[in-house]
Design a protein that fits this description.
The protein is α/β, with parallel strands linked by helices. Helix content is 30%, strand content 21%. The chain has 19 helices and 32 strands. The strands form nine sheets. The protein has a six-stranded mixed beta sheet, sandwiched between helices. Strands 22-23-24-27-28-32 form a six-stranded mixed beta sheet, with helices on both faces. Strands 19-18-20-21 form a four-stranded antiparallel beta sheet. The radius of gyration is 35 Å and the shape is elongated.
């Protein structure tokens, strides 16, 4: 009987094993778990962009996060959470970057005299300042009194010993109190007649987000900067007495004390190996009310260009704590030997390449969580328009981490990414994901669809007769493969980033009739007769969906002596000939309902001969420190600003007629920027409907699953500072196509522009 029971249990276990594995890979996280992973994601970004080691050392920070994130989510207690975070931080090999539990505040016990800071004379007139356990150091007034008493005895001292060793890690209050006391009294300025020159520090900074693939016109870059040390003059009463400074890992070792150690009459000793972690104070990140993560943002840079701590002598091995002071006092009686002068520059190799990820389109759990962390971090620090997001980016992270964790396949993962990225409200927020392409479909039919009067309307048919059988220009699409068009639009809109809703519909027109190549597409239509019908076509590959080339003249004269230029086809080489042909015209219409070819820079000098005309204003994020709530600074980061001037007129004949520009939701990015130039040059009039509202040199990055994401790196504005993003260029004359006009083959926007050019009405 037991054998049968065991066999049944084993079979049940084997049958459930695949399910159990899948559940482990796609868990449903509780709000508390999501909060822990979200805070770890924020920490990931702060360290990724500001820990100096990650700017030049080959450290696989992303992989370490992918391994640690599930452990942080699963942790049951604070110590387990600290251990999981510690696994992530360990890859940095940096004792200045650690996770710790916040000790509960308790009433301090009365300090024993032997444990408090002491000032006394040792034999041979050696004045000693001994910190012992730094008990009482958090008392600022008390420390001023102690250090003041020390300085009052200095004139009677032959030599000085600063025994700054601590017996346990210090609190921020103890470090602050002791440092404040020394600075307030000016102790270090009395211990040397030479100026104190503290070491410089090297930190990371960024100017926009350098793309992970290809190049960008934004000129974004990342690098390092050096923050110079400070020079402090000695006090008039200063003397060069033999001075020894004794420290350990629990000592308060300030930049001033380290600088003092470089003077010939001073010797700096440590009872254990040290790093620069005590001098370069870390940033404290509040992971939770009970956990703090300290991480470095700087590294010490010596006068000779060397990195890290130097000039500290180790006590002989085996020196007992109580014997260390005696050893150092004995060394004070020995004349100091000359110190060798070295020169070794800090190596700064090229930055490590962007992280690479496993190739699977359905990444493992940790890498799915990494995707959320990287998206949040890059956008938090570098998206030019993050302040325009209509929803909280922090809240979106927490929602998306849950979706990323529970995604059970590549499609679920990619769609979770898309829903997260939609919060950008940026038309440059493109998502290149194979799984999204499969979800939408790669095939379509050879027609153009536009939203006219808020309805999807076939506006052009360009396929062979058999490919577009029974379709007519002006047909309204009501259904696709049994799905009502409103439901299909809502489903696709949920994964489509855009700067505004009218442009989101413009993007969706390319996806509306998508289906797998070779499969039937059943399209429900309502024609001009208002009757419903269904047409079934076959989804063709993209190679068969290219419309025939436009054979009309790129620029030509229209009735009423009005010039017209198709900006989607006009090339820079055509500009001079165009203005020569239009020299005597009443007006020029620039048709910008497409994407131009960089012609604005050639056209602008023909529109004005004024000097130093601002064409647009640019802002980009240029962070050089973590952007998080700390002290008086609440989420503040730096921006880089510049004004872009129009190319100067170098002898071009200035066109004095009226200029008009046709715009609609297809006018985006460089097309909108051309509008800024023309507006600034001569006040060009915009006719049509609001543009896409997406401008700002695009940059990109990758996340696991082979997904490439892009976004606007520059906040581009009108010359007078008005917002362009999301609002778009606004028409002086508002006119939109109608379904009736489409069916009649009329270009109502161009017709309205012709009337305005002739009547100014």
């Amino acid at each position: 009987m037991r054998t049968l029971q065991y066999t049944w249990y084993l079979l049940l276990l084997l049958c459930c094993w695949p399910w159990a594995t899948a559940c482990a890979q796609s868990p449903t996280y509780s709000p508390a778990q999501l909060e822990r992973v979200a805070k770890l994601s924020e920490l990931y970004g702060h360290i990724k962009f500001f820990h100096p080691y990650l700017g030049y050392k080959r450290i696989n920070w992303d992989s370490a996060f992918a391994q640690a994130a599930p452990l942080v989510a699963q942790a049951q207690t604070d110590p387990e959470t600290v251990a999981a975070i510690g696994q992530l931080l360990a890859v940095l090999r940096d004792d200045a970057t650690t996770a710790r539990l916040v000790a509960p505040r308790s009433k301090a016990a009365p300090a024993a005299a032997a444990d408090s800071v002491r000032v006394y004379f040792a034999p041979d007139s050696v004045l000693v300042l001994q910190t012992n356990g730094y008990t009482g150091a958090e008392d600022y007034e008390g420390m001023i009194e102690k250090v003041g008493a020390f300085t009052q005895r200095l004139p009677r001292a032959r030599a000085v010993l600063l025994d700054l060793r601590g017996s346990r890690p210090l609190t921020d209050e103890q470090v602050g109190g002791f440092s404040y006391g020394m600075n307030y009294v000016g102790l270090l300025r009395l211990l040397s007649t030479q100026p104190l020159i503290t070491a410089a520090t090297r930190l990371r900074n960024h100017s926009g987000f350098a793309p992970e693939e290809g190049s960008t016109s934004g000129g974004y870059w990342s690098g390092f900067y050096i923050r110079a040390g400070e020079t402090t003059a000695p006090r008039q009463a200063a003397r060069n007495r033999p001075l020894a400074i004794l420290v350990n890992k629990n000592a308060v070792l300030t930049a001033g004390l380290l600088a003092l150690g470089n003077h010939p009459h001073v010797r700096l000793y440590s009872s254990e190996p040290l790093s620069d972690a005590q001098v370069v104070r870390p940033v404290a990140f509040s992971f939770s009310p009970t956990i703090v993560v300290d991480f470095r943002t700087a590294e010490l840079l010596g006068a000779d260009g060397s990195l890290g701590l130097s000039g500290v002598s180790l006590l002989p091995a085996g020196t007992r704590r109580e014997a260390a002071a005696a050893y150092v006092l004995a060394q004070l009686r020995v004349p100091a030997a000359a110190r060798p002068v070295t020169s070794r520059s800090a190596a700064l190799p090229p930055p490590p390449p962007p992280a690479t990820y496993p190739t699977a389109t359905y990444p493992a759990l940790g890498y799915r969580l990494l995707a959320g962390a990287k998206i949040w971090s890059v956008i938090h620090y570098f998206h030019a328009y993050k302040d325009l997001m209509p929803t909280s980016w922090d809240t979106a992270l927490r929602t998306s981490l849950g979706e990323l964790a529970s995604a059970s396949d590549s499609a679920g993962y990619a769609l979770a990414v898309a829903r997260f990225y939609r919060h950008l409200q940026d038309g440059h927020g493109a998502i290149a994901a194979p799984a999204v392409v499969r979800y939408v479909g790669q095939g379509s039919v050879p027609v153009d669809v536009r939203f006219i009067e808020n309805k999807p309307v076939i506006t052009r048919i360009f396929g062979a007769a058999q490919q577009v059988k029974d379709l007519q220009v002006g047909d309204i699409i009501t259904e696709i493969n049994g799905e009502q068009v409103a439901a299909r639009i809502a489903r696709l809109a949920a994964i489509q980033p855009a700067s505004n809703e009218w442009t989101r519909l413009n993007y969706l027109r390319w996806r509306l009739l998508r289906a797998p190549v070779g499969t039937p597409i059943r399209i429900g239509l309502r024609g001009a007769d208002n009757r419903e019908r269904t047409v079934t076509l076959t989804a063709l590959p993209g190679s068969q969906l290219t419309p025939p080339p436009d054979t009309t003249a790129v620029f030509r004269l229209l009735p009423g002596n009005i010039g017209y230029a198709d900006m989607g086809r006009l090339q820079t080489k055509d500009v001079a000939a165009m203005f020569a042909a239009f020299n005597a015209t009443k007006a020029i219409i620039f048709d910008m309902r497409s994407y131009p070819n960089g012609t604005a820079w050639a056209i602008a000098p023909y529109l004005t001969d004024r000097k130093n005309v601002v064409g647009a204003k640019f802002f980009r994020y240029a962070p050089n420190e973590p952007d998080m709530a700390t002290g008086d600074s609440d989420h503040a980061t730096q921006k880089y600003f510049f004004e872009q001037l129009l190319p100067p007129n170098t002898g071009q004949p200035v066109y004095r007629g009226k200029t008009l520009m046709l715009i609609d939701e297809r006018t985006q990015s460089q097309a909108e920027h051309s509008g800024l130039f023309f507006e600034a040059a001569n006040g060009t009039t915009f006719i049509g409907s609001p543009t896409a509202g997406a401008n700002g040199d695009v940059t990109n990055f990758f996340i696991p699953g082979g997904i490439r994401l892009s976004f606007s790196g520059h906040d581009v504005r009108h010359a007078d500072g008005r917002q362009l993003q999301q609002t778009g260029l606004q028409p002086t004359v508002l006119v939109r196509p109608t379904i009736r006009g489409i069916r009649r083959g009329q270009d109502e926007v161009l017709a309205r522009a012709l009337r305005y050019a002739s009547t100014r009405k």
